[in-house]
Amino acid sequence: MMQWILVTGSKGYIGSHICKQLYNEGYGVVGVDRDNSSLNYNKYIAYQPCIGFDDIALQDVIERYKIKTVIHTAATSLVGPSVKDPDTYYKNNVDSMRQFLTICRDSGVKRIVYSSSAATYGDGYETFSEDIVNNPISPYGRTKMIGEWMLEDYCRAYDMSAVALRYFNVCGADADGEFGQTTKPSHIISVSMTRALKGESITLNGDTFETADGTCERDYIHVTDVARANVCAMNAEVDNFVAVNIGSSLGYSNLEIVKAVNEYTDLTLDYDFGPARPGDPARLVCDNTKAHQVLKWVPQYSDLKNIIVTAEQWHKSLLV
Predict the structure, then answer these.
(1) 149-186 burial string, b = 16+ CB within 10 Å, else e?
(2) Residue 204, CA distances (Å) to 38, 146, 151, 193, 266 in order
(3) How many other CB atoms are found less than 10 A from the CB of residue 266?
(4) Where in the sequence numbering do the catalytic residues fall?
(5) d(CA 194, CA 201)
(6) Cα-based distances in Å from 127 to 67, 88, 130, 285
(7) Every domain of the chain and the residues it spans
């Protein structure tokens, strides 16, 4: 008998990859997204209404397909815009989250996999493990933290279980070139690719950090590994609620990324150095041990070459 999984934000960067991963693993996929555009990965989705979380149609969909597991990726993201417009973030990530959880409870959903963020941690660390104190410093990070608290409370009160996946820098694209990131570039890999394709250079912020090459290091995780982590989280043995880091546990420096673009693609990306941004730490990398233990998940696609090659393939396709 087909097991149906509901994916919210199914037309997004991460959501679309999850839908394909589920389909390839034999699950039936029902997508929910307020975007009513027709994209080429719809072939992986059996049914996709254009509805929001305050719409009674969502409960109808869950009950019609007898859905017990929901993967919740829908949210308003990005740190910078959340500082300028916190109202939108609290409305979409907190108000709508409560409505969504209530519908899940009333419809008999038992497992929720939640797309959280490393932004829940805040600053002051170089290596992030789940046992450090969360101190988010942006409205976006705070809304994702509130989402985790709500999940934990609902699970305790209403006989549900949930896994919150704290993503680090999600990057790369589908290996088949079917889909990838379509929003404005948000980290150095996507920025580097778009600049190189335009024949533009890039300025790296700081070259005197205490790292091997003087540029800051960050944790990058391929979007396919993120999709795999979501499927693993659906089936993990979790009684109530758990939050888990999803990152590579590898630190790639800004200079390494630029050099990888020049080495692994036919593009040329020139660069120079500018001043470091105030407060920028030298290294931000996750400890993903808990993901190994709880989810039985390890990254398979997050080596820098694969990230760069798939990102190039995708960004080139946008120019066609």
Answers:
(1) ebbbebbeeeebbbbbbbbbbbbbbbeeebbbbeeeeb
(2) 37, 33, 38, 14, 21
(3) 8
(4) 140
(5) 10
(6) 37, 30, 10, 5
(7) 4-170+221-247+286-300
For residues 168 and 173, give the distance between their C-alpha atoms in angstroms, rounded to a whole number: 15
Amino acid at 79: V
Q: What is the per-residue pLDDT across 22-51, written as a single tens digit (0 to 9) for each?
A: 999 999 999 888 765 555 556 787 766 666
- pLDDT tens by residue, 242-257: 999 999 999 999 999 9
Give every strand in the sheet of 241-246, ordered side by side.
28-32, 4-8, 69-72, 111-117, 161-167, 241-246
Amino acid at 44: Y
Q: Which residues contact 259 (CB under 8 A, 6 or more apart)?
A: none
82 and 132 Cβ atoms separated by less than 8 Å: no
pTM: 0.93
Options 3.30.465.10, 3.30.1380.10, 3.40.50.720, 3.40.50.300; CATH of 4-170+221-247+286-300: 3.40.50.720
- What are the backbone angles phi and psi of residue 313, rounded to the nearest 5°? -55, -45
